[in-house]
Amino acid sequence: MSVKRITSIDVARYAGVSPSAVSRTYTAQHKVSAATRQKVLAAADALGYHPNALARALVNSGRQGSGTVAVVMSEFDNPFQPYLFSLLTQALQQAGYIPMLINVTADCDIHTSLLQAQAWQVEAAIISAGSLSQAATERCLELQLPMVLMGREDRQKKVTAVLSDNRYAGRLAADYLADAGLTRLAFISGRQDGQASQERQQGFCARLQERALPAPLVILNQDYAYQSGYRAMQRIIRHAPHAEGVFCACDALAFGALDAQRLEDHRRRPVIGCDDTPMANWQGYRLTTVRQPVEQLVKQVLINLKQVLSGCAGAAATVRIQPELVVR
Amino acid sequence: MSVKRITSIDVARYAGVSPSAVSRTYTAQHKVSAATRQKVLAAADALGYHPNALARALVNSGRQGSGTVAVVMSEFDNPFQPYLFSLLTQALQQAGYIPMLINVTADCDIHTSLLQAQAWQVEAAIISAGSLSQAATERCLELQLPMVLMGREDRQKKVTAVLSDNRYAGRLAADYLADAGLTRLAFISGRQDGQASQERQQGFCARLQERALPAPLVILNQDYAYQSGYRAMQRIIRHAPHAEGVFCACDALAFGALDAQRLEDHRRRPVIGCDDTPMANWQGYRLTTVRQPVEQLVKQVLINLKQVLSGCAGAAATVRIQPELVVR
DNA sequence: TTGAAAGCGATACCAC
DNA sequence: GTGGTATCGCTTTCAA
């Protein structure tokens, strides 16, 4: 039935060396003479041997780490998430990790899933579920599993987090619209309890206030979805048609808002997004937006990951990445 | 430094039973008396014990299977992929598997990545890299790793595959356009060597021929991207403005084509997509498209996965799922 | 039903 | 540098 598996012992025997020698040829940091190395590799090749990562991880679970990382994500329907996810997993793979995916829909899942991941001795978890309740975060903290948060931080700052400077993003948007001479502005929120949405709103409002401009009309939503952006713009068209410019908490909302305006209004107000998803550059949208520098975010996540794993002291800090305005 | 890990032995000692008893309480198929079960669970709870999946998998690698599955994906920039991916991983999680992700950009990566996954003793690999060369597929076959292909099959039909009936999809599109009385049609391809694109084209052309309609103008592309759809439509506008209807190999292409038409032409030809990504239902597009029933695809993949794992005989079959036209 | 003991496959520590 | 060997945490025969 099941094929006999080739073990390091088989290779050792075949090559006429000890199992230790085989092990050493496959662990970078160890020293083997070129001669034995050759013999081992030849034998391995002849037998079709590949080291068993499970066994390896079992032995040095505790010391070296298993080589796996849990990646917790949600909201794949928002175009920003897959974009981020793709880059993140590629970076992890390149760094030699193999990502175990935890796709979360409801808040309640995440704790269970992390338990499962932890059972697999993942070295750490990278949590990018933007809309993760504080309660859920707390429970994850109890897990004693090294974590890096992405796109959110925990209130008590007990966990490393990497996120963009959302307030600054809001300010950029405010400046852009204000510089264009617009004064009656609106903000379309994402999830009300979402950190990103809240901070972007704060930055936007604060900057307008600094410039002595009227506070924007704020339209609240329950999510970051296209449809919410669409409906929000409908409300603006109907109840605040005088609005001269709109800042949206994310690109997906902005796409909805743009379409609502195009299809249901003759007026053309500038709509500013936030994220700079690849879609923002589609000719059909050409959305002016505030870019989250995803490559940098990912790079920083990997840096923080290493810090957390090395038990570095100042690891529990939040790193903010500067966004930049992309005018289209 | 590292926290002392709680092992089954600790629990056994604490509960006053043997390690075997602990093991048995945690493996469904085994029998334990209610009394000992209670003691074990109480002890586990008191100590905060969770079985080590690594060790468990190591022991019964070979017999029971590890509980992990490799998921190979690519092209996260095409909105269909994340959509599929999200549902697939959720289904896997629900079935008790934990997906190890392999995000592939180039063809060459995949073999290496699968080797890595295999080292982790994944039970099987689900390969949804639509644009995977035949050569790469062959090399994967040599791996002796149980596989399920998604969205493509291998020519020699040695591997189970689940994909939608793309030819039928093409026929649906042809009928829809022909029923509308249109005769001068065009087809915008995706990756020329992509199976989905080829089959959709074949079905489309075949059906037109059956109905004695002229063969469509075919515009070839190197990928399934929005930009390619946009450029393709530009070419139609410039060189074949008389075209009355367009069928695109996927939704993303159709979005590009629609936008090109909207922005650069006064004419309005029906544009038909293929996939039915969530975006197709956006008010900005309201794309009539041929739906790939993703839920069914995923369900079938899990069925085939079980078959492959049980070493079932007829497992090497291709299952085709019927797509359906969604008129918007 | 239960416990004792033999592995699963690889690594690290210890002598040589 | 190299080879023996205990060990990682769990499961599973085999007797009792």
Q: What would your notes on this structure say?
A:
The structure is a homodimer of 328-residue chains. The first copy, chain A, has 328 residues and is an alpha/beta fold. Chain A folds into three domains: 8-60, 434 Repressor (Amino-terminal Domain) (Orthogonal Bundle); 68-164 and 294-322, Rossmann fold; 166-291, Rossmann fold (3-Layer(aba) Sandwich), CATH 3.40.50. Helices cover 45% and strands 17% of the residues of chain A. Chain A contains twelve helices and twelve strands. Chain A has helices spanning 8-15, 19-26, 34-47, 53-59, 80-94, 107-119, 134-142, 166-179, 195-210, 226-239, 251-264, 294-309, and strands spanning 68-73, 98-103, 124-127, 147-150, 160-164, 185-191, 217-221, 245-248, 271-275, 288-291, 318-321, 324-326. In chain A, the strands form two sheets. A six-stranded parallel sheet of chain A has the order 2-1-3-4-5-11, with helices on both faces. A six-stranded mixed sheet of chain A has the order 7-6-8-9-10-12, sandwiched between helices. In chain A, helix 1 (8-15) crosses helix 2 (19-26), helix 1 crosses helix 3 and helix 10 (226-239) packs across helix 11 (251-264). Chain A is elongated, with a radius of gyration of 25 Å. The mean pLDDT of chain A is 92. Chains A and B meet through helix 4, helix 5, strand 2, helix 6 and helix 11 of A and helix 4, helix 5, strand 2, helix 6 and helix 11 of B. Chain A binds a DNA duplex (16 and 16 nucleotides) through residues 5, 7-9, 17-24, 26-27, 30-33, 36, 51-63. Chains A, B: It holds the Pfam family Peripla_BP_1. Chains A, B: InterPro entries: HTH_LacI, Lambda_DNA-bd_dom_sf, Peripla_BP/Lac1_sug-bd_dom, Peripla_BP_I.
